[in-house]
Amino acid sequence: MGNPFVHVELGTNDPDKAKKFLTALFDWKLEEYPGMEYTMISVGEGTGGGIMKNPVPNSPSHWLPYVLVDDIAASTQKARSLGATIVKDVTEVPDMGWLSVILDPTGAALGLWQAKMQK
Fold first, then answer.
1. What confidence tens digit (pLDDT) does each residue in 52-88 have?
2. What is the largest CA-CA distance in the chain?
3. Distances from the Cα of 75 to the Cαs of 17, 45, 83, in angstroms?
4. Reading across the β-sheet that carries 38-42, which strands appear in turn?
5. Is residue 32 located within the same domain as residue 74?
6. CB-CB contact of 33 with 74 (8 Å)
7. What is the pLDDT of residue 34?
8. What is the per-residue pLDDT for 56?
9. Does pLDDT of 97 surpass 80?
10. Residue 83 belongs to a domain with what CATH number?
11. Residue 33 has pLDDT above 60, yes or no
């Protein structure tokens, strides 16, 4: 089946408090990304994720799932044509890939992800 969930990201108003809670609750390994205020979550088997400072001021902390796509630009445009609102247009994550964030027609947030091809 295509288009699996590949990453789940926590945008939190208190990253340190969230990290402390999540590592006490689960057997997750956290890895800080140097030069970025981003923490990768490794869960062993299953879909991992990340933790970052909430990018939306004055909004509650939230989880955002990402779905793998083959063509980020085409998928983002297709979502728009189907009634989605584009919250964050296609954006490159250096050395990793590209993302966009949409609100589906019901108002639910969803991330789209295209991985950079590894050589």
1. 999 888 899 999 999 999 999 999 999 999 999 999 9
2. 43
3. 35, 27, 13
4. 29-33, 38-42, 49-53, 5-12, 62-68, 109-115, 97-103, 85-93
5. no
6. no
7. 81
8. 83
9. yes
10. 3.10.180.10
11. yes
Q: What type of residue is 95?
A: D
Tell me which residue range forms the domain holding 85: 69-119
Tokens of 101: 């964030």
The per-residue pLDDT for 118 is 58
Task: Give me the number of domains the chain comprises.
Answer: 2
Q: What is the distance between the alpha carbons of residues 9 and 113, in angstroms, rounded to a whole number?
A: 12
Using DSSP, state whether 58 is helix, strand or coil: coil
Token pair 């108003």: residue: 13
Non-local CB neighbours of 119 within 8 Å, separated by 6+ positions: none
Same domain (yes/no): 51, 75: no
Strand duo 49-53 + 85-93: pairing: unpaired
3-state secondary structure 76-116: HHHHHHCCCEEEEEEEEECCCEEEEEEECCCCCEEEEEEEC
